[in-house]
Amino acid sequence: MVQTGAVVAGLLCAAAMQGLAFFMMAAGEGWIAPFYFSFVGYLAFPLAFVQRAGADDDESLAVDGALAFLAVGCDLFLLFTTMAYELQYFLQSVSLTLLPMLWIGLWIIWQVVAISTFLAKRRHRNAELYGGNL
User: Fold this and answer.
1) Tally of domains within the chain
2) DSSP character for 98?
3) Which of 52, 122, 124, 131 sits most deeply, having the most CB atoms within 10 A of its CB?
4) Is residue 71 part of a domain?
């Protein structure tokens, strides 16, 4: 039941992020990169939320590590794409509306959940391995 709620919440967040990104495109005259990056949210949000509510085992830790790696990689790629190709569109979008800040806020949610879950489970795993002495 908890996992179903996590998946539904994740899909709702991803849909909200995709909707914001669609409006930010402004018929091709706005910041376009978030529209394409938002598709990652349909996998990342539900998976991050399910992992947060899920078991603490080796397979779970591997998935958490992959999500944390995906978060950092996507951020770097989004930053590179925006700086190289769309900086003026990003700055123009930020000056006209709050939609980019809302999108960035939603974008950060799954990453914070994924990275904090990975670090918490990794710390718990280390405590198990070393008898609680970290």
Assistant:
1) 1
2) S
3) 52
4) yes
